[in-house]
Design goal:
402 residues, alpha/beta, seven-stranded parallel sheet, six-stranded parallel sheet, 13 strands, 44% helix, globular
Length: 402
């Protein structure tokens, strides 16, 4: 039976749906794939226009787009932009105003706003009769509000989706007020490029050769942004201590500040200098990896480490979830959604105890192959059974219809 109400999804960041390039999956897939799995609901999606859309085929009655360069709005004075949408940046104002006009044309009864709380507030002002749901993809929402503004926001928005209970707990602790209607929906992960069984062994051999790894080496990895918020300095420092206890350990940190919006090159240089305390090749920085190269790295890795900090927070780390899906033994800090993602299938460390405990954890995992495999198998089973788009679509559909 079809659901008769009309739903519009607004993407409050510069992302394009359906996917039209080979960039890393993330919020795009987390919106696009569940929508595709709910054909019984009349859902329209409004996201950023890209010229690459011209090269792909998609349902133009379902996927609509707004531009950042709309001349109709671009020359509106700053103070008026701020008054209308609370946005000073001309590009974002054009993007959001294009969204508002499309929503007026579609006339939905329910609107889901992803990412931007400010956009959710303005949408509710423009469309007070529509039910507005705010879908937050991070874990530091409490940092964006004071007590008064949070209570006003909760009073205006009809429903909330969070991606970890830790975020709910922090909001309640700071403000003492939670939304009347909210749901926690953990993210899903896309499948990595498959390596055929016929070539898997050869691919692994090639990958090990590329990084100078023997069969006896135990590989620890991190892949993601090169930022202090991931406490990579503590990872390198702890690894150096662990290596002195087990010289079979190796570490690869994959990422490139040049591919980040606010890349911290000085921090990256500091990490490399620190790694020079060990022999060449023990700690490697291969830079940014394509999805195919990352899949190969996962296939030869043994341990994944994610040291999220409370200051930056952590929602549902794609790196952590993919590591689990590849059967790696995972170590993470008790920050944000890490605890819920791992769910007792890995090693969790208080962030303030990383330097004192991580070296011994790495030595134990490197030395105890059975323990390492047991954690990896448990992580693999959880990832395969729970981090699915079908589960996300089912939970979101139920909340939309409630």
């Amino acid at each position: 039976m079809s659901y008769k109400e009309k739903v519009v999804v607004l993407v409050g960041s510069y992302k394009t749906i359906p996917p039209c390039d080979s960039s890393y999956p993330g919020i795009v897939d987390l919106i696009y794939r569940p929508v595709e799995l709910m054909p019984d609901i009349d859902i329209k999606v409004v996201s950023l226009w890209q010229d690459r859309l011209k090269a792909i085929s998609f349902d133009k009655n379902k996927y609509f787009h707004s531009k950042r360069e709309n001349l109709l709005f671009r020359f509106i004075p700053y103070r008026i932009r701020k008054k209308i949408l609370g946005v000073g940046d001309a590009n974002r104002f054009c993007y959001y105003m294009g969204m508002i006009l499309l929503v007026q044309k579609i006339k939905p009864t329910k609107i889901i706003v992803h990412v931007d709380s400010g956009l959710a507030e303005k949408v509710k002002e423009f469309f007070p009769r529509a039910e507005v749901m705010f879908y937050y993809h991070g874990s530091i929402l409490e940092q964006k509000f004071n007590e008064e503004s949070w209570k006003e926001f909760v009073g205006r928005i009809d429903k909330f989706v969070f991606i970890c209970h830790d975020q709910v707990q922090k909001l309640e602790k700071k403000f003492g007020v939670l939304p009347k209607k909210y749901r926690v929906i953990l993210n899903a992960i896309p499948a990595l490029p498959e390596i055929s069984s016929d070539s898997l062994q050869q691919e692994r051999m090639n990958c090990r050769k590329k990084y100078g790894l023997s069969q006896e080496h135990v590989l620890v990895i991190y892949a993601g942004r090169i930022t202090k918020g991931k406490n990579l300095h503590a990872l390198v420092s702890s690894f150096i201590q662990a290596y002195r206890g087990n010289s079979q350990l190796r570490l690869i940190i994959a990422g490139d500040p040049a591919r980040e919006t606010y890349g911290d090159f000085e921090y990256f240089s500091t990490l490399k200098e620190l790694s020079e305390q060990l022999p060449s090749g023990v700690i490697q920085f291969p830079g940014w990896l394509s999805r195919n190269d990352l899949a190969r790295l996962y296939s030869v890795a043994d341990i994944a480490v994610l040291l999220s900090t409370p200051e930056e927070g952590e929602g549902n780390s794609l790196f952590l979830m993919e590591s689990m899906a590849n059967g790696l033994a995972c170590v993470a800090t008790e920050v944000g959604g890490n605890k819920e993602v791992l769910a007792e299938t890995g090693v969790l460390l208080p962030s303030e105890e990383v330097l004192s405990r991580l070296p011994s954890v790495l030595i134990t995992l490197a030395s105890d192959r059975e323990y390492r495999f047991r954690l990896g198998h448990a992580a693999l089973q959880r990832a395969r059974g729970y981090f699915t788009y079908e589960r996300v679509a089912k939970e979101l559909r139920e909340f939309i219809m409630s």
